[in-house]
Amino acid sequence: MKKKNQSKTVNKEAFRMLAVEIGLNEACRKLDVPIPTGKSWARRGGWKLPKRPGGRPCRTLSASSLNPIADALVTTHKEFETTTKTALMQTTAKAAEHAAQKPPLEVSNTSQLRDLAQSAARIFGWDSGKPGVQLNQQFVISQEQLEQIRQLRGVPEPEQLQAREEQ
Predict the structure, then answer these.
(1) C-alpha angle 138/144/146, rounded to 5°?
(2) Which of 28, 136, 150, 165 has the smallest set of CB atoms within 10 Å of its CB?
(3) Residues in the chain with pLDDT < 50?
(4) At what angle do helices 24-31 and 35-45 cross, to 10 degrees?
(5) Domain segments of the chain: what residues?
(6) Is residue 135 packed enough to be buried (19+ CB in 10 Å), middle (13-18) or exposed (0-12)?
(7) Sign of the C-alpha dihedral computed for residues 114, 117, 120 and 126 taken in this order
(8) pLDDT tens per residue across span 128-160
(9) 2 Cβ contact partners less than 8 Å away, ≥ 6 residues apart
(10) At what angle do helices 12-22 and 68-101 cross, to 10 degrees?
């Protein structure tokens, strides 16, 4: 009596790497390897696999491609990426709500403000359209301060320049 999985070969080292990454049971499910077989390989090979909580999730990947182990690993990394972005956004939102209840964060210079804005842009994907966050600075200088700057730099007054041009 032939079983349906006997004709399919699985690279055990690649299977072990996938099992370390996503868990033994999940790797068995994604590659259609019987869970007792995977556990036997792990026991005989002395694999140090992490304990993972949770029940059986629904199957989302068929092992029909040429490299199902790599496909399963890529899929898992994409799931982790989505989860990580969501967790970072939630954490940032909670921190913003907490900060809004207190006095605003003290930003003592423009580089701190730029760093805060760029961090938020990266987390929320605002920087995908480019250009990124831009800060425009405006300085107000009184006439007296302008005259002092000109004297220090040795630049003549505008009236003196006009007089020179007329001569």
Answers:
(1) 50
(2) 136
(3) 1, 5, 132-133
(4) 130
(5) 1-51+64-97
(6) exposed
(7) negative
(8) 665 544 556 666 777 887 788 778 877 666 666
(9) none
(10) 20
Q: Any idea how long the chain is? A: 167
Six-digit token pair at 62? 């068929």
Tokens of 27: 């790797």
Amino acid at position 107, single letter: V
Q: Is the pTM of this model over 0.70?
A: no
**Residue 90 tokens, joined:** 């939630």
Distance CA 107, CA 117 (A): 12
What one-letter code names the amino acid at 161?
Answer: L
Residue at token pair 């995908």: 128
| CA neighbours closer than 13 Å in the CB half-sphere of residue 66 | 0
Please name the residue that has the structure tokens 């690279």: 11
| Residues 22, 6, 40, 36, CA torsion sign | positive
